[in-house]
Amino acid sequence: MDIPTFADMLIAHERIKPHIHRTPVLTSRVIDGLTGASLFFKCENLQKAGAFKARGASNAVFSLSDTQAAQGVATHSSGNHGTCLAYAADRRRIPCTVVMPHTAPQAKKDAVRGYGGRIVECEPSTSSREAVFAEVVAETGATFVHPYNDPRVIAGQGTCAKELIEQVDELDAVIAPIGGGGMVSGTCLTLSHIAPWIDIYAAEPEQADDACRSLKAGRIIADDAPTTVADGLKVPLKDLTWHFVRSHVADILTASEEEIVEAMRLIWKRMKIVMEPSSAVPLATILKNSDVFAGKRVGVIITGGNVDLDKLPWH
């Protein structure tokens, strides 16, 4: 697949504007005091369908020809990409099938179905979801929209960083969660062209730290079925996202399960916004590595808010 370009990102932003929110940037003096940094939270938890992935999914769906669109789209996803692809497909009035692990939060399954998507369940491992997905594509003939290893998706995700630096002046760093690397790759794509002085960090759970180990090893290391409260960050890097990570990411920082949950509680308590565990990983790593960020202006991407309110991690 072709590596997406900065021009692709600009085209994507114009294409998807009718289908996304320009999400707000929020701050918290209390959290700034705890971290020693000035944090600017880009709230993609307030995005259409509740996650940043509405950007990449919408770009992919609305870039299809009419002939391709008639066959529908399909993907495999632990939740947010599937929800957002179903959202975008609904906007274009085309079919959408999502392969999801049976362990995915019920709230995310409900969201996919709420946008008219069809769910086919699999085991909670990369090998299972890819095997089941192959059967779905053979059955439907749908266009595959990968959750992150897709140039259309990465270009769409890059629009988030474009908005962020238009909304906040003089950032020193930007940090986002990393699983497969779609948001981080889009951030790299955008900032390396228009703000190359900004350091890009990724944040990852200690119990699903394959991206961190990959960066240190200089090659992709993939775990098949890690266990973490940050359910959106269990998938491994792929070739396109690895290209951006190895070329532009300054470091990948990790946090424990307890640190992730405490950061999530802190944001809920102090900022009064709903966000999911995956979105708390960046703040958890900032609190843990205050020496890295002290005195800096840091953009923090809150990637999604699709949490199961009946199974909050502190219960």
Give the number of helices: 14
By CATH, the topology of the largest domain is Rossmann fold
Mean pLDDT across the residues is: 95
Unreliable spans: none
**Distance between the terminal alpha carbons, to the nearest Å?**
43 Å
* Cα gyration radius (Å): 18 Å
- Number of DSSP strand runs: 10
The strand line-up of the biggest sheet is 1-2-10-7-8-9
InterPro entries: BHydaspDhtse, TrpB-like_PALP, TrpB-like_PALP_sf
Keywords: Lyase, Plasmid, Pyridoxal phosphate
GO molecular function, one term: pyridoxal phosphate binding
GO biological process, one term: D-serine biosynthetic process
Notes on the protein architecture:
It comes from Methylorubrum extorquens. By secondary structure, the chain is of the alpha/beta class. It folds into two domains: 6-51 and 151-302, Rossmann fold (3-Layer(aba) Sandwich), CATH 3.40.50.1100; 54-144, Rossmann fold (3-Layer(aba) Sandwich), CATH 3.40.50. It has 14 helices and ten strands. It has helices at residues 6-16, 29-35, 53-62, 66-70, 80-92, 106-114, 126-140, 151-167, 182-194, 210-217, 239-248, 257-271, 277-288, 290-293; strands at residues 25-26, 38-43, 73-76, 96-101, 118-122, 143-144, 173-177, 199-205, 249-255, 297-302. Helix 1 crosses helix 3 (53-62) and helix 9 packs across helix 11. The model has no long low-confidence stretch (mean pLDDT 95).
Give me the secondary-structure topology:
Blueprint: H1 6-16, E1 25-26, H2 29-35, E2 38-43, H3 53-62, H4 66-70, E3 73-76, H5 80-92, E4 96-101, H6 106-114, E5 118-122, H7 126-140, E6 143-144, H8 151-167, E7 173-177, H9 182-194, E8 199-205, H10 210-217, H11 239-248, E9 249-255, H12 257-271, H13 277-288, H14 290-293, E10 297-302
Parallel strand pairs: 2-10, 3-4, 3-6, 4-5, 7-8, 7-10, 8-9
Antiparallel strand pairs: 1-2
Helix pairs in contact: 1-3, 1-8, 3-5, 3-8, 5-6, 8-9, 9-11, 12-13
